[in-house]
Structure formats: C-alpha cells, structure tokens
From TrEMBL:
Pfam families: PseudoU_synth_2 (PF00849). It comes from the Bacteria. It catalyses: a uridine in RNA = a pseudouridine in RNA. One of its GO terms (molecular function) is catalytic activity, acting on RNA. It comes from Secundilactobacillus folii. Residues 97-246 form the Pseudouridine synthase RsuA/RluA-like domain. Belongs to the pseudouridine synthase RluA family. InterPro entries: PsdUridine_synth_cat_dom_sf (IPR020103), PsdUridine_synth_RluA-like_CS (IPR006224), PsdUridine_synth_RsuA/RluA (IPR006145), RluA_PseudoU_synthase (IPR050188). This is RNA pseudouridylate synthase. One of its GO terms (biological process) is enzyme-directed rRNA pseudouridine synthesis.
Amino acid sequence: MLQPSEWRFESRLPATFKTKSLRDLLIQDWYLPKHLVFSLKRGKRVLVNGRYLPVNFPVNSGDLVQLRFVATDFDHPYSNVVPDSAATVKVIYEDTNLLIINKTQGSKTHPNQPDEVGTTLNHVAAYLAPKGQQPYVINRLDQETSGALLIAKNPAVVPVLVRMVKEKRIRRTYLAWVHGCFNSQQGIIALPIGRDGHDQRKRQLNGIHPQMAITHYRVIDRQPSATLVAIQLQTGRTHQIRVHFAGLGHPIVGDPLYAADPRQQRLLLHSWQLTLPLPFSFKTCTLIADPPTVFQRFERRSNQ
C-alpha cells in the first residue's frame, strides 16, 4: 500500500469563536503540542483564508484555517500493522480522523510483535486498508474487557488525542457487574495501587510502588447477589477498576485474576460511553457501545 506523505485539515471558525492568536487556537482549542505548532510555523504550513499567517497574529470567527502536516513531523508516521480479517470490526463512529469501535471481548487490543496478527488492531487495519488508511491505537482495553475503543486514522491526530486523554478531556464510562450489594447509590474509591509482589500479572491495594488511584461509581441495578455499576476513572492505573472493587470485597464478576469464579464465566466489564472533542473542530460527541449479550444473560440468571 502506498504510504501518504502528507495530511491536510481545514476548519472554518464558528460564529461563536472569540478572537485570539493563531498559536492559542492551535494549542488551547485544538490541543496541538508545541513542537508540532513550531513545525507548522517553520514550514509555513498553516494558512488562514488561503495565506500564511504568523502564529502570533489573531484569527477571528469566519476565518478558514488550513493545516498541512508531513511525515517528518512525526517520530512514527506509519503504524505498519499487519491487516487481518475485518469480520469482527463493529463501528460505532467514523470520520476522516477517527474510528471508534465496539471491541470484542476476548480480543487483544494491539499486537506486541511486528508480525503478530489476530488482535483488534489487526482487524481494524484490514477494515481501513481499502481506504488507504492505517490504525493508530490511542488507548487500550484489557483482553477480556469489551466496548468503545478509540483509534486514530492518521498520525496528525495521535498527539492531539493523547493530550486529550492526559488532560482528561476524553471521558469514558464503564459498566461492570460486581459481586455483592452496595448500600450506597454512589461513591468514590480513593486507594493507592501498586504491584503484587507474588504475581507479576496482578496489582494490589498498597502494593509495591503504590500510586494514588481514584474511581467514581454509581449504582445502575441491584440483583440478589450482584450490583451493576457505572464507573468513571479520575486516574488511569493498571487494572484500576478491577483492583479497587476487589479490594472492597466486590470483585468484578468473571475476573480471572481477582475473583474466584468458574473459568467459563466471562469478565463483566465493558467500556460503555465515550465523550470526546472532535479534533480540529469545536464539536463534542458522546457515543455508546452496546454491552455484549453476556451482560443481559447474567441479569436474567441473577433474577432466577
């Protein structure tokens, strides 16, 4: 597949836009890192109304802003993921920059070896190949976690989305069935998480080299032996949701590391809602990934 050598974007500033410098637009509103703004400036690859404009000059509502990125702007301009079957790709949202899919439970997010196939990203690479595009993973979900997964379709939006994640501009809500019943309707779990000294796969509360972790939850449904909770993370530690609820004595149903459930019981953790600003625009979208049928089957079984 012929690799693209440049990526172009344009956006007309809305009527509600308040005059500010081009630099502030690029950094504050569009989340571009400073080194990319410098590259655009040095290459005179940022145009306003068809003409190059120094980044300290003001831009106004109605202005047309055009950006052109080239491969040398990025350390890794091409993802080079080996395409696999696209049969499992369930698209929730797609535009010229982004792809959000409902990840299948049991599928790894991305390959760990150069020629590895069979992961979600390999499947997405096969889906995008006919369009001449490649996938760039922004965040990952554990193999047994299903739900909304954010993927970039060009290298220019990767640093934008990474910065949005870091600055908590992207909000994700999870659903989980946990063992036992909660007395409270909502709560905050603020407990440090570190490595488990006995199992390198696991984390534990106050483990080795702990870092503070904060999880918000609210109860959605109660069954005799389990509770359905909606969860938002204020921090992003490895296995944070799984460790926090297990530490409270309410492990996630089907968790192979932190719950003593039968092996055939699948992990009931799902990335449910995703809210994010769309790159190089002033729009925000909220998307919902339908939970797998195992969530509904578990609810019916709990009621029997």
